[in-house]
Design brief:
alpha+beta, two-stranded antiparallel sheet, 10 strands, 19% strand
Length: 227
């Protein structure tokens, strides 16, 4: 059984936000107007965090893409009263949108602020509806939303491999963020498969995880910047 995970090389990340744009486009994530964004109602399943070090003009910028950490011990799953949030056998923390009642317990339990409440019924002009991804549902108002490592792509890759009568290969599936990254800073694969590059990178001396002391066991690793 694979255990899907991700390694993000902060030394390669330029902060271009291509991963963020690709995630929004792939997963039909609605946008809001500036007044709602000021109230914290903007959604971004993949968010590029910016850190400024030093004083002007001797400043240094660093960037850290932040998807859902896909924890092996996810606190969001434990607090959901209707089991809308669940941990799959392959380690992906999923969200069953029709079951979600929007209580936001999971968002409060998540230490990585990786879950978002859908405040409004999403609306797109007719000219933009053709661009919506038919493989991903358009979530109704009042549910929690989150990154799922583009699980719909994984399921399609499995079906294609099954139809071809062969096992799933590492190159068969990449989430939208990794696909769009121009510097290949985002690497995805099976953390327990030595043949997958992500399995090697997670053991790199630079590899670290966010807030490991909490015991959530995140499956997203970061390679810190070289000195």
């Amino acid at each position: 059984m694979p255990r899907w995970g991700m390694v993000i090389d902060l030394d390669r990340c330029t902060g271009c936000a291509a991963c963020e744009v690709a995630c929004k486009s792939e997963n039909n994530i609605a946008t809001v107007r500036p007044d709602q964004a000021d109230m914290g109602r903007a959604m971004s399943w993949m968010k590029v965090e910016t850190k400024i070090e030093g004083d002007f003009p001797d400043t240094r910028l660093s960037f850290a893409p932040r998807p859902c950490m896909q924890c092996d011990n996810p606190p969001c799953v434990k607090v959901c009263p209707v089991s809308a949030t669940y941990l799959s056998p392959e380690g992906i923390v999923g969200q069953i949108y029709p079951r979600c009642i929007g209580c936001r317990y999971c968002a409060n339990a998540c230490p990585y602020t990786a879950k978002y409440f859908n405040w409004f019924a999403p609306a797109w002009p007719d000219s933009e509806r053709a661009h919506l991804d038919p493989d991903v549902s358009v979530r109704p108002r009042g549910v929690m939303e989150k990154c799922t490592f583009c699980d719909h792509r994984l399921q399609q890759a499995k079906e294609n491999a099954r139809a071809a009568g062969r096992p799933l290969r590492e190159s068969d599936f990449q989430p939208a963020c990794a696909d769009a990254c121009p510097t290949r800073a985002i690497v995805f694969g099976d953390l327990d498969n030595p043949a997958h590059r992500v399995s090697t990178l997670k053991n790199d001396p630079r590899a670290t995880r966010l807030m490991e002391s909490l015991g959530t066991e995140p499956k997203v690793y970061y390679l810190t910047q070289k000195a």
